[in-house]
Amino acid sequence: MNMTMLKCADCNSRISDKADMCPHCGCPIEESIKNKKMNTRKKVLLTVISIIVILTVIVLIVGIVNIIKRQEEKKGFYNGLAWGTSKEELQERIGEDCIDNSSKDCLLNAVSDYEGIKNVEAAEIYYYKDGFNKVSILVSFDEEDCSLNTVSDKLVKIYDGKYGTHEEISSYGYTWTTSESMIELVCISSELISIKYENINTVDKE
Predict the structure, then answer these.
(1) Helix, strand and coil in the chain, % to nearest 5
(2) Which of 73, 77, 161, 191 has the fewest Cβ atoms surrounding its Cβ within 10 A?
(3) Is 0.70 topped by the overall pTM?
(4) What is the H or E stretch that residue 110 is in?
(5) Cα 165 to Cα 174: distance, rounded to the nearest angstrom
(6) C-alpha torsion angle, residues 164, 173, 189, 116 (rounded to 10)
């Protein structure tokens, strides 16, 4: 028969669970067994509480990050990049695959599954002359994979969610105005959509 060692509830000496009492202080074994069970329950409870606290902190952090991201989106910054961001920071944020076209004062970048839409590609142009103040995006897709209406409707819905209700400038053109940006989406052919983000302060000056 297996013997389990436990601590005496009174003197903390190690004793067998088969003994009737502690040989050191005479404390009944029942008290020590009861004490062990209580300590086990406490450990389980503390573990559960610790897990709940950790999960709560994670949820709070994720919530705060999402709120900050949402606030940035409401400003109309493309990919969260504030106007005036330096060329070096743009390169770091966009990624090492971007190409610096210094003759045109812009960075070029290619994106697959643009805005989460499958089989839709995008060429991004970040203009940094006199400070980052404009982004142009050329969205392309194959008519066999996606129709113009499907892609444009999805993009308009996504942008409405980010920047508020759009204004129609034509049958195939839409604009959004935020506190920081002017955003324009125009369907230019059956397989191409042009999107432009501009610093609203720069637009006003023009």
Answers:
(1) 40, 30, 30
(2) 161
(3) no
(4) strand 106-111
(5) 10
(6) 0
